[in-house]
Amino acid sequence: MITLLSTWTFGVALGFVALGVFVSYKLFSFPDITTDGSFTLGAVVATVLLVSGVDPALATLGGMAAGAVAGSFTGMLHAILGIEPLLSGILMTTALASINLVVLGRSNVPLSGVKTLLDRAETTLLPAARLLTFEGAAAGEAARLGFMLLAAAGAVLVLYLFFRTRLGTAMRAGGDTPTMARALGRNTGALTVFGLAIANSLTALSGAIVAQYQGFADVQMGIGMVVWGMASVYLGAALVGQVRLGGALLATFAGSVIFRQLVAAALRAGLDPDWLKFATAVVVLTALVAPRLLVRRHQASVAR
Amino acid sequence: MLGTHTPTQKMLELHNATVTFSAPGGPLVRAVDGVSLTIPSGQFVVVIGTNGSGKSTLLGSIAGTVRLDGGSIHLAGHDITRWREDQRARLVGRVFQDPRAGTAASLTVLENIAVAACRGRRAGLSWATSRSLRAEAASRLGGIVPGLETRLDQPIGSLSGGQRQIVTLVMATWRRPDLLLLDEHTAALDPAAADRVVQATARLVREHNLTALMVTHSLAQAASLGDRLLLVHRGRIALDVHGAAKRRLSPDDLAFRFDRLRSADQLDEAAARSLSELYV
Ligand SMILES: Nc1ncnc2c1ncn2[C@@H]1O[C@H](COP(=O)(O)OP(=O)(O)O)[C@@H](O)[C@H]1O
Ligand SMILES: [Mg+2]
Q1: Taking 50 as the threshold, does the pLDDT of residue B5 lie above it?
Q2: Cα separation of A33 and A88, whole Å?
Q3: Which CATH superfamily is domain B10-249 in?
Q4: How far lies A263's CA from each of A224, A276, B262, in Å?
Q5: pTM above 0.95, yes or no
Q6: Rounded to whole angstroms, how far apart are CA atoms A210 and A197?
Q7: pLDDT tens for residues B231-278?
Q8: In this predicted complex, what is the ipTM?
Q9: Is the CB of B51 under 6 A from ligand 1?
Q10: Which of A118, A168, B15, B212 could be a cystine partner for B180, CB 3.0 to 4.6 Å?
Q11: Strand pairing of B179-183 and B92-95?
Q12: Does ligand 1 come within 6 angstroms of the Cβ of B235?
C-alpha cells in the first residue's frame, strides 16, 4: 500500500516536470535541455534555503524562481543571440552543472532534521487521510499524496487559466506560428523567453518538491529529466488523443503518474536498474510511434 | 504631385529604398533597387511582376521582415525605417501567400481572432475570448462566408485554405490597419476559393476605406481591382498606372504597355514574354 502510494506521490511530483516540458516542447516546439539542469537547480536552491532556516514554502518558491531565471537565460540565448534551441539548452544546462555544485557546496546535502513542505502538509492533511481510513505510515503517505494532488490540480488550473488570457493565447499563437504572431504585433522572442521561464519554474518546482520528499538534494538528480518529461507528455497524449488545452494538461500529469507506475512495475519484475534509462528511451519511442501506427491501422480499416 | 497632398493624405512613403541580398558565394542581388513611392491614404494598389522581380521583398521591407540597406520608409506619419516587425504591426495588417503562415493551426478560429483583436496593443491578463468578441466574430465572419460563424470553436487548422485566408483577412483588418499588405494571398488556392477571397478582399478594402498593397499573379485581379497598378521589374517600378488610365486598363492595353517598355529597353525580352503570358 505504502509503495503504491509513494509511487503515485513521486509520479505526481515529477508531473510538474512533464508540465514544464509540455509548455516548452508542445506549446513552443522548443526541445529544452535546460530541464535537466533546472530540476537540480530547484532542488539545490530549495535545500540550501531550507538548511539555512528559511520557511519551507518560501524555500520552494525560491527554487521555482531560480528555475525561471535559468529558463529565461536559455530563452535569451535563443531569442537574442539566435542560438538554436537544442544548443541553447545544452549550454545552459552545462553552466548549471557548475552553478548547482557551487550553490549546494558538495554533491549531496541531506535534509535530516529540517521541517519540509511535505512534513507540514502531512501534519495538516493527516486527519483527512485518517478519515479516508488510511492508518499508520500509510496515512502519512496518503496525506503527502493528497497534498501533491492538490498542488498538481492548482498548477494545472493556473496554467489553464493563464493560457486562456490574452497574453497566454498570444504565447500559444507565437509558439504555434511565429510568423502569425509577429504579423499581429507580438514580440515572439520575448514570448519565448517568458514561456521558457514558466516551463523551467515548473521543472524547478518539481526538483524542490522531490528533494523535500526524498530528504536530500543531489547534483546528479536532474539527469534524464527532459526525457522523463517528454515520455509523460507523449504517454498522456497517446492515452487521450487529440484534446483541448485543459485535457492535454491533465493528460500530461496522468502520463507522469502512469510512467512512474511502469517504471516501478519494471523494477519489481526484476529489471536491472542499470537498464532504467534504456527502458525510458524505449517507452518514449513507443509512446511516439504507437499512436501513429494506430492511426494508420484505423485509416486502413476505414479505407477498406 | 508635390503640394497637392497634405502630409496626412500621404499614408506610405518610400524614399530611395534599397535591399541587397548576398547569397554565400553568389552574386549580389538588388531585390529592391532605390524605390521611391508615395501612396495616398485610401489608395488600393495592385502590384504585378515576374517571379523574382522583388515584389515580396518590397512588401517585406514595408512589413519589417526585410531590413533596408538604404533609404527610408514613412507610414502614417511615423518614420518606421528602424522599427521591428512586431512594432510595425501596430500600423500594418498582413495576409500571407500561405494560409498556414497567417493563422495558428492549433488554436481555435475564435482564439486566432482574439490574438488579432490585440494587434498593436498590450495583451494583458484579461480573458482572450469574451462573449462580445464571439458575437462580433460571428457577425463579421458570417457576413462574408455564411456558415463560418458556426466554426468559431474549431481548431483553425480544420478549415480549408480558402476559409483560412478569409479568416486571416478578417484578422488583418479586425482593428483598422493604416496599411494592408497582401502578398499573393490567393496563389495557394483553387480558382473558386481564390475568387471568393478576392471578392472578400475588395469588399473589406472598400468598406473600411483601407490603404492597401496587393501583389497578384492574376490578370483578372490586376485589370479589375484597385486604383493603381505597379509593375515591379528587377527591383524597380517599371510601370505606374493610376487614375482614369487605371480604370480604363484592359488586357490589350497592358500588352501594349509591356511592348513599349521592352522597346525602350526598360524590360528584357524574357520578362516581357512571361508577363504577357501571366497577365495578358
Ligand atoms: N532571403 C533572401 N536571400 C537571398 N536572396 C533573396 C532572398 N529573398 C529574395 N531574394 C532574391 O531577391 C529577388 C527578389 O525576390 P522576391 O522579392 O521574392 O521576388 P517576387 O516576390 O517578385 O517573386 C530574387 O532574385 C530572389 O532570389
Ligand atoms: Mg513573391
Answers
A1: no
A2: 8
A3: P-loop containing nucleotide triphosphate hydrolases (3.40.50.300)
A4: 14, 8, 75
A5: no
A6: 20
A7: 999 999 999 998 888 888 877 777 778 777 877 777 777 777 777 776
A8: 0.90
A9: yes
A10: B212
A11: parallel
A12: no
